[in-house]
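In the present case, backbone shapes were mapped to integers, as reproduced here:
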Amino acid sequence: MIDVEILKRPPGPPSEPIAEPVAENPSARAFRWTLAPGTATPMHTHDRPYLVVAATPLHLTMTGPDGASMEHPVTAGDFHWVVTRVTHALLNRGA
């Protein structure tokens, strides 16, 4: 079980969802991503702060709009807060 409590929503209007949310209320929006081995997301932008919680281990490659990439191994249960605007695509390089 993962329980995330949003203490204060950042000022400003909500951004457009980047996919169909699995849950949403006035304070938070949640997405479920399944990224099969060898599969990549389209390039997308997160305009608001967000939290990533890994349900399974992954070996991700994150690529920015400029083509620069970085490897990002993730273990199951990892939490990663992102507080700045980010545009990227993700590739699951794991098995």
In short: Residues 41-92 form one domain. Residues 16 and 47 are 9 Å apart (CA to CA). The chain has a mean pLDDT of 89.
